[in-house]
Write a structure and sequence with these properties.
Length: 337
């Protein structure tokens, strides 16, 4: 894709980007050589993940953030990830309508991506789409995903900075904040601050942050113990650790948006200043590599194993004459490389 070269986003680029994302979504082989070609040109954009419970206003906030970035003459790509439905659902349709006002702007690209099959496949698609936007020269890439367990952790790992969006009401039920959310948030946003209870929710979050952030955070991921994002006392951080801000916004009234944009810029500078950016990039790439290897190795094996053989193994598992561990060993012995 030699068209994509400068940081200017031309309409041709947008068309090329759109086509490439569709190829990625459908796992089309034509995408491979193009993705390989553009890979050296990735690594410049600020990758921002936006997650949180359904309906907290993530899409509205993303919309407002995009406008704020445009006012600051920065280009923005938005990837709305729907991990739940295999086809574009109502929420995405709503987003499309809402984002129509942005789509005429050549400096903005809006795209939704639905999951086809496994979560791993979704993550792969997200990584690839992000690379396309990055190589196309978008300054900021906003990745929105509904807070739904493992998927949000996966998507969060594809980002440099993670915004967790809450809405008023959290202060009434402290349990409403899910385990794991504190660990992935770099910035908390209490959206719908035009509604009562936003202060209480912000205060509850602040308290949880002060009490709750364990010194060394670890996330189990694909059975691998991932390194915490900021290891306690990491000397490379120069004793400087990131204080997670809790910001209030009203996407509806377009209030508090610049403070979020500022916090994103601050976090980006923090990542640059410390070695955290390298850590996160490394973690991202390792993660992606592991997933690709898993998928590739499994597919190579399954191409050789006959259905009859597999069903025989399964029958033995069912009647308890073979343990799952031994089943794996047997398959690998029967089908050596
Ligand atoms: N009062 C108020 N309503 C808001 C605000 N932001 C969003 N909403 C409304 O909240 C509803 C959900 O907004 P979305 O932006 O679609 O929320 P979301 O988190 O993207 O939703 P999902 O993607 O479905 O999880 C819509 O009806 C919005 O108009 C806000 O700041 N104040
Ligand atoms: Mg949404």
């Amino acid at each position: 894709m030699t068209m994509i070269q400068s940081s200017q986003i031309h309409i041709d680029h947008k068309r090329a980007v759109a086509r490439l994302i569709t190829w990625i979504e459908n796992n089309r082989p034509e995408a491979r050589p193009v993705l390989n070609d553009l890979y050296p040109r990735t690594g410049r954009a600020h990758l921002v993940g936006i997650t949180g419970a359904p309906g907290t206003g993530k899409s509205s906030l993303v919309n407002e953030l995009a406008k704020a970035y445009r006012q600051a003459a920065q280009t923005v790509a938005i990837l709305a990830v729907d991990p739940t439905s295999p086809f574009s659902g109502g929420a995405i349709l709503g987003d499309r309508i809402r984002m129509r006002e942005l789509s005429g702007d050549p400096g903005v690209f809006v795209r939704s991506m639905a999951s086809r099959g496994s979560l791993g496949g979704l993550a792969r698609g997200v990584y690839e789409a992000v690379n396309v936007f990055d190589a196309a020269g978008f300054d900021v890439i906003l990745i929105e995903t509904v807070g739904a367990g493992q998927s949000e952790v996966e998507i969060a790992r594809a980002a440099h900075t993670v915004i967790v969006v809450e809405a008023p009401g959290l202060g009434d039920d402290i349990q409403a904040i899910k385990a794991g959310i504190l660990e992935i948030a770099d910035i908390f946003v209490v959206n719908k601050a035009d509604r009562p209870g936003a202060d209480k929710t912000a205060a509850a979050l602040q308290t949880m942050l002060e009490l709750g952030r364990p010194p060394a955070r670890r996330v189990m991921h694909h059975g691998t113990l991932m390194q915490p994002r900021v290891a306690a006392g990491t000397p490379s951080a120069g004793d400087e650790s990131w204080r997670v801000p809790v910001l209030k916004t009203s996407a509806l009234k377009s209030e508090g948006i610049d403070a979020v944009r500022q916090a994103l810029a601050d976090h980006r500078h923090y990542l640059n200043r410390t070695q955290e950016l390298q850590h996160r990039n490394r973690a991202r790439l390792t993660d992606d590599l592991e997933q690709r290897l898993q998928t590739e190795l499994l597919q190579r094996l399954l191409r050789r194993v006959t259905p009859a053989y597999l069903s025989d193994i399964t029958a033995k598992l069912v009647n308890r004459t073979l343990s799952p561990y031994n089943a794996v060993q047997k398959i690998l012995e029967d089908y050596p490389d």
